């Protein structure tokens, strides 16, 4: 049911990431750039977290230099040269020279000469500089009469810095920085119930999936290589390899858009912004139900229209007018015109989605004497379009006196519960 492996699998080629395809489809340079990588290593010193005891396995793969060289090859922009194990290369060349001198003494001396090694105009430095565990965790579950299900997730994060250094004068030409989250998820279901006094039925099912760290590191490195290429095109550090910047304009524009969006990105891949203005008008449709001194209260539909002034991004002052219908079936039905004043607090004003709470007071007008009340409530808002927010909320009304329906009975004041769905229209300056 969950694609559980039941047979051994054959070895396969390594998986590609989304940036592998993007690197391979990059516009080609006029000529490739010879580049050297001495080491691009794990600099975090982080070990895998262990629930019990110590775990001396590193959290980050130790072959990140090889991953970087593969990304450079896939881009078709660079000619990577061997520098990580340069001693092995030099030793082997020395063995070749010694062998030729000893066994080919009478041969043409020109045939004994080895071609010179390539030298790099640019060196790449950097590494994996951080591995942060459990930057975000959470879960959800429920159980009813022995039947339950739950899900959990955890996010880790790696961060990579990559810099290009000129071998001519040691100048650091460009530095790029990328990060990638690593997701682990778990889904579990269980059944536990006594069928009768002597029989117990118990069942469990579950699935856990962990994103491979190697693929996360590969994706972050490939992203860094792509960013380095585009930054180099923009700043003209690739020299004769890029003679016409206009032929790469599509890639540059795409990169600039991503950079612009990245300005407002925060941890958790969330984007902040000024989605709300200084003023807002709103309209709600409400379902209302009274809790008074009569029996058989009936739910009715009402409406609300109002205005908000934001004193700060989180706090606003709200004025509204609404129609509220009090009804007990076959006993009393009364419609009130209700102006209200509220103070509202938005928990995350810089995000499209935010919870909010509010509270205030109002006056209920009808054919009888005005009734005073207090109210509090809360809900959620999501910005569905520019300057338009969709809201869902609930409100609890509590009367200061016990005579909304004209009857005073008992100690409990008259109360009401409302559920609303509406739209906020933002106007003014951000």
UniProtKB/TrEMBL annotation:
<keyword id="KW-0564">Palmitate</keyword>
<dbReference type="InterPro" id="IPR005534">
    <property type="entry name" value="Curli_assmbl/transp-comp_CsgG"/>
</dbReference>
<protein>
    <recommendedName>
        <fullName>Curli production assembly protein CsgG</fullName>
    </recommendedName>
</protein>
<dbReference type="InterPro" id="IPR011250">
    <property type="entry name" value="OMP/PagP_B-barrel"/>
</dbReference>
<keyword id="KW-0732">Signal</keyword>
<keyword id="KW-0472">Membrane</keyword>
<keyword id="KW-1003">Cell membrane</keyword>
<dbReference type="Pfam" id="PF03783">
    <property type="entry name" value="CsgG"/>
</dbReference>
<keyword id="KW-0449">Lipoprotein</keyword>
């Amino acid at each position: 049911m969950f694609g559980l492996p039941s047979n051994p699998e054959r070895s396969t080629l390594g998986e590609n990431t989304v940036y592998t395809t993007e690197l391979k489809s990059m516009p080609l340079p006029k000529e490739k750039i010879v580049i050297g990588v001495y080491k691009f290593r794990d600099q975090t010193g982080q070990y895998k977290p262990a629930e019990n005891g110590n775990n001396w396995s590193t959290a980050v793969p130790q072959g990140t230099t090889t991953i970087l060289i593969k990304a450079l090859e896939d881009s078709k922009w660079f000619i990577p040269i061997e520098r990580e194990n340069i001693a092995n290369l030099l030793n082997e060349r020395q063995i070749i020279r010694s062998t030729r001198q000893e066994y080919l003494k009478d041969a043409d001396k020109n045939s004994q000469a080895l071609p010179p090694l390539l030298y790099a105009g640019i060196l790449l430095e950097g590494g994996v500089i951080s591995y942060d565990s459990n930057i975000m965790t959470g879960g959800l579950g429920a159980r009813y009469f022995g039947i339950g299900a739950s899900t959990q997730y955890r996010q880790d994060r790696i961060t990579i810095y990559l810099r290009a250094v000129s071998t001519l004068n040691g100048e650091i030409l460009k530095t790029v920085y990328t990060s990638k989250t690593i997701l682990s998820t778990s889904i579990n279901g269980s059944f536990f119930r006594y069928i009768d006094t002597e029989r117990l039925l118990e069942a469990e099912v579950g699935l856990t999936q962990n994103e491979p760290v190697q693929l996360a590191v590969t994706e972050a490195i490939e992203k860094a290589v792509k960013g380095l290429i585009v930054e180099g095109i923009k700043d003209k550090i690739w020299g004769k390899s890029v003679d016409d910047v206009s032929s790469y304009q599509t890639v540059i524009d795409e990169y600039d858009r991503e950079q612009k969006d990245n300005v407002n990105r925060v941890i958790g891949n969330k984007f902040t912004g000024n989605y709300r203005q200084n003023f807002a008008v709103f309209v709600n449709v409400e379902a209302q139900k009274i809790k008074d001194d009569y029996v058989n209260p009936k739910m009715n539909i009402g409406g609300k229209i109002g205005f908000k002034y934001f004193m700060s991004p989180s706090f606003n002052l709200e004025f509204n007018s609404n129609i509220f219908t009090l009804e007990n079936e076959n006993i009393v039905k009364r419609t009130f015109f209700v102006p209200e004043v509220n103070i509202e607090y938005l928990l995350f004003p810089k995000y499209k989605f935010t919870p909010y709470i509010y509270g205030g007071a109002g006056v209920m007008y009808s054919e009888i004497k005005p009734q005073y009340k207090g109210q509090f409530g809360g809900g959620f808002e999501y910005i569905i379009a520019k300057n338009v927010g969709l809201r869902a909320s609930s409100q609890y009304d509590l009367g200061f006196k016990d005579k909304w329906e004209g009857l005073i009975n008992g100690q409990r004041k008259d109360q009401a519960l409302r559920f609303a769905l509406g739209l906020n229209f933002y106007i003014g300056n951000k």
